[in-house]
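Example complex used in Figure S2.
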Amino acid sequence: MTTLSSEIAEGGKARVSVADYLKHHIRDYGMLVALVVIMAFFQIWTDGVLMKPLNLTNLFLQNSYIIIMALGMLLVIVCGHIDLSVGSVVGFIGALAAVMMVSYDLPVIVTVPACLLAGALIGAAQGYWIAYWRIPSFVVTLAGMLVFRGLTLALLEGQSIGPFPKSFQALSSGFIPDPFGLDFKLLSLLLGVAVGAGMIVFGLRARAKQARFSHLDEPLSFFLAKNGVIAAAIVYITYLLATYNGLPNVLITMAVLISAYTFFTTKSVPGRRIYAIGGNEKAAKLSGIKTERLTFLTFANMGMLAALAGLIFAARLNTATPKAGVAFELDVIAAVFIGGASMSGGVGKIMGAVIGAFIMGVMNNGMSIMGVGIDWQQVIKGLVLLAAVIFDVYNKSKGET
Amino acid sequence: MDSILEMRGITKTFPGVKALDNVSLKVERGEIHALVGENGAGKSTLMKVLSGVYPHGSYNGDILYDGQVQRFRGIADSEGLGIIIIHQELALVPLLSIAENIFLGNEVQRFGAIDWPATYARADELLRKVGLKEPSSTLITNIGVGKQQLVEIAKALSKRVKLLILDEPTASLQENDSEKLLDLLLEFKAQGITSILISHKLNEVSRVADSITVLRDGAAVSTLDCHTGSIDEARIIKDMVGRDMAHRYPERTPRIDGILMEVFDWTAHHPQHPDRKVVKGVNLTVRRGEVVGIAGLMGSGRTELAMSLFGRSYGQNISGRVKMNGQEVDVSSVGKVVEAGIAYVTEDRKALGLVLDETMAKNISLSNLEEVSSHGVIDEGTERKVAMDYRDALNIRTPHVFQKVGNLSGGNQQKVVLSKWLFAGPEVLILDEPTRGIDVGAKFEIYTIINRLAAEGKGVVMISSEMPELLGMCDRIYVMNEGAFVGELSAAEASQEKIMSMIVRGRAA
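Predicted assembly (910 residues):
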């Protein structure tokens, strides 16, 4: 009986053609392809403005806070919940930072950790009711949305507070220093090359490790093409950025967080357990997983990331305003769903959410350059969100028959 | 007497299963006709054919009602003729009032708006008929199960019932509520309403029934007239269970060692009704290398016992002690009970056992991720190897271990759940309906695995509704009824008749 099953396993290992492979993984690459198509579209229709180094830099700066929050939101949604309060938390933490630094003259080094902690506590406070009292997250965070918007107004007394110290501004608008002292930011390009090369090397090593066990369905040609194109894109983008001011600080922050959360979701024990909770909470609980505690921590984490986004957003505007972060939750949630996460939990990828955020960001940016009014921008973004989710559901139902 | 209902040669097949095989049933006008049989004998299926849940054309045979051949396309058709079925799981909306529930889908209207005064007045009148004193504005959630049952009957009366079908109406009722319900049936009989009563409880059946039909394995075995001579319970029991061993069981020579697990005076209460005991003072012993069975009908408290033991995953106010190898252990959470060496394989593998969207490998490692990780980082190579080892050991048929378990067959899914719990390294495995809904070949494989586990010195507790399975596999069988163990039989003395009579009499024979 052993031979029978291993024969089937060998059968599964048999060579898969690139076309076959793509057919089965269309969900994985569909959105990446969509992003590239959308970028190409705007590159043409904006006469090449989209990919100009200055605009590219702006694109990263404008979307960094959405992407950072999308990382936390992905976990929340995978866990089977939603967080509507993040936009208000962005506003509240910006206001808190402004009051601490401008009104009370506290140093940046104190303010930043204190604000991150405050964000984590806000998330924990909401997560407590959701996890231990089983109050629906929609309701708890809707309440949080109102509460923290109100507290933002109260803290700022309806005014805008700014400007911030230079070192705080650098959080968002700073660029990494370049030791070579050239007009061209060589270090930035070198970093890009290193990341691109590292990606291919690590990818090959992981592939070799995988090959030692029977399962290997990605064709080598496809693997090389995919990683080659992505590495080339990274190098090209860093090259473009290097001709301007180099890599923004916030891009580094983002890259580190994206890597960390990708690792967390794919390799770590708690990450795996969050997927299990979203996939089947009862089965997870009967498997000895402390579902309440993990749900609680997922919300605390979300709060902390929202606080980080709030700091970056305030630093970018160089002022805290009562309107900061309004409707951000919608962009963040849209990004996660465009990226293929399932409304019912258990399914979703960090890279998907990041790509989803970039799709929204590129569309915002491109349409603004083209002079599309804010009215039609909303209509188009809404339709793209709907189309992305329909595409996902359609693919899933097709896969099941 | 003329007959109100005649079902002739009803055959109903589901993919791969013949649920009803040429069943005929004749019910006289104005009588109480009891339908008895084991779980899965086909009683509920037969009633679903009658009420139109399975529409005409989806089965073979004829239904004659009031002397005419009927072709019901749905429940509305049969209800229109006064055939009302009350299911075991009550279909009431908890947060609506009694009156609203009675007229749900059949609202009392005036000029297109609901006529509330008339609704409540008519509801109150119906409640009087069934002997309920609650005002009809009371919410369903505020009355007990017994009274809810009466509301269902009032609802049936509102539809001008001629043939009332009750599916295990007393299964969740206390003794005196059951008595009242049976009295009500007798009263209806006096008014000329015909009833079909599906029940396991022979004492109830013999109290009210005019005739009894026994179903077994989808066939009508016998029909008894209760007025011509006394009812022979022993014969009914024999008719209910008297089949040949349909399956074969792998051979095993038991090598039973010392006591492994002991449970003392285990008691648990219903999660929503704190005053209802669901498990009543159960004592259970499992020895090394022993397969212990728990027999009983659905709802007898077997699953509740297992799940309340397993880290208090069911119920409240749980009390009792558990010893493993003579040492008292803490079983207050799933993590602790697994650490103590106990695993529970659920009866509902899809809802409680598996993450269907995840791969087989990820499901197997889920209860013991520590084993495949270091410092909180999962080693996918180890995880994969573990999955492949179990795939080979348990002969799980899958193209690769990265197959989503939702795409596997029932038998293979069951093996994945088993693998998951074997990987947790338990000494005692509690298997709840381990062969439910899987085909005969896969059943044999599961039996083989169970025997192998026993041979390795593990203790196995096997909960099953299939008595032949328990008789074929177990060294010792506890019989459970209404939350308590009512008897214990060794493999040598156990028989289906003995088990069934302990269940229906509620005590050791």
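Chain A has a mean pLDDT of 89. Chain A touches chain B through 36 residues (CB under 8 Å).
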